[in-house]
Amino acid sequence: MQVSRKPRATLRTINGRPAPRPTWAIFFSNTAPSFATNATYLMTTMFSTQTKMLSTQIKRISLPKSRVSLFWRENGPEYPCKTILLLHGFPSSSHQYRNLIPLLATRYRVIAPDMPGFGFTETPDHFTYTFNSLADVVEEFLATLSIDKYSVYIFDYGAPVGLRLALRRPDAIEAIITQNGNAYVQGFGDVWAPIKEFWASDNTEDDRSKIADIMLNYDITKFQYVNGTPDVDTLAPESYTLDYALLQRPGRREAQLDLFRDYQNNIPLYEKFQAYFRSSQIPLLAIWGKNDVFFIPPGAEAFKKDLPNAVIKLLDAGHFAVESHTLLIKEEIFQFLDDEPDIEISYM
């Protein structure tokens, strides 16, 4: 499925058509107008481009069955096209995809929901926070939007949710992009030790307070972004700052503790996930931050056991590779889904 293409040497094109000269070429052209005019042109062009990149819509829908008020981000062409569902992880929300969405939306309809317990989605009292429940809500959301065919991008918590959807409706999934989204026991890093200890506990209030002190503080929220990222200056501080702020919303502490506890119930499903891979031979791209201490590279490489044609890419990145390597991930997705890449991809 991977095709190596070199950029054209004589004519810069986009999708087979001549591309306009880049802004810098006009700015420094010998035939360009005055410096002041050029400066105005440059700023206007940059503002126009930025405006287009900010066209992602934010939406909310009330789901009648679950009674969840679900928040999501959406972008895409006006013409009919394929759909990509982006499922976020802990402790984030659809906000983690804010930069990727408009890039993918040049070719696809992109849907990124905030799952219950995260972001700006609101749940009714006594909502049960399990990964089955999260999958139920996402399934209801997709049905409400009449989305019956899509590719899915799974990351962290999004993996057990997205793979549950695949077990329920294998005919609906056209391809899987897994970015540090685990489906093998080999993928767990040593930093899971406190959570595994919580699994073995009696789930008393003391047990819950102990894991909350470890996993629900600002430092560990920031750590998940900066650890393993070669250049932390590429990370927008509002990413982890917003994540932490939203974790302080009423009910979020208990919701996250319930999900920590329930994560152990994903592991018995790994055999079913792997059986699905073998039977379906679903096209799969595993694009992995190789410096991630939560889901380590053996988890990416393990997909090859059940999907010999899986494409495995290890990036010099941490857990939130989509924050630091947005453009590369976009290009890999385009290439994986048989679209022509705009640039030649290289890894440093």
Automatic annotation (TrEMBL):
One GO MF term = epoxide hydrolase activity
Entries under Pfam families matching the protein: Abhydrolase_1
Hydrolase as UniProt keyword: yes
Question: Superkingdom of the source?
Answer: Eukaryota
Q: Which residues form the AB hydrolase-1 domain?
A: 83-325
Arranged from A to Z, the UniProt key words for this protein are: Hydrolase
**Which InterPro entries does the record associate with it?**
AB_hydrolase_1, AB_hydrolase_fold, Epox_hydrolase-like, Haloalkane_dehalogenase
Q: What is this protein called?
A: AB hydrolase-1 domain-containing protein
Q: Which organism is it from?
A: Beauveria asiatica
